[in-house]
């Protein structure tokens, strides 16, 4: 946590795209590594980030030929 917000670093593999997640929050990077500075409380940033990660994993699963556990 910094005076500017919550710094978030994302790493991924196997089809999930870190840059897509980070770009949704105004950040950027590469498919395997990206980041952004989130606004709000730590708890709020974590909740929004996890929701974005879940969406990206669900989007990446069909492309990777992975079946959902639902």
What does this structure look like?
This protein is 41% helix and 20% strand. It has two helices and three strands, in the order βαββα. The chain has a three-stranded antiparallel β-sheet. It is globular, with a radius of gyration of 13 Å. The protein is α+β, with helices and mostly antiparallel strands and 70 residues long.
Briefly characterize the structure.
This protein is of the alpha+beta class and 70 residues long. It has two helices and three strands; from the N terminus they run E-H-E-E-H.
Q: What percentage of the residues does DSSP assign to strands (E)?
A: 15-25%
Gyration radius, to the nearest Å?
13 Å
Enumerate the spans where pLDDT stays under 50 for 5 or more consecutive residues: none
Shape by Cα distribution: globular
Strand count, sense and closure of the main sheet?
3 strands, antiparallel
Which structural class best describes the helix and strand composition?
alpha+beta
N-to-C series of helices and strands: EHEEH
How many helical stretches? 2
Helix content: 40-55%
Strand line-up across the major sheet: 1-3-2
Give the termini separation.
Answer: 35 Å
Work out the number of β strands. Answer: 3
- Rounded mean pLDDT is 89
Describe the structure using short key phrases.
single chain, 70 residues, alpha+beta, three-stranded antiparallel sheet, 20% strand
């Amino acid at each position: 946590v910094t005076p500017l917000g919550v710094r978030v670093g994302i790493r991924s593999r196997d089809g999930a795209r870190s840059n897509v997640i980070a770009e949704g929050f105004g950040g950027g990077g590469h498919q395997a590594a990206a980041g952004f500075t989130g606004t709000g409380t730590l708890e709020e940033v974590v909740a929004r980030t996890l929701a974005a990660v879940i969406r990206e994993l669900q989007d990446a699963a069909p492309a990777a030929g992975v079946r959902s556990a639902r």
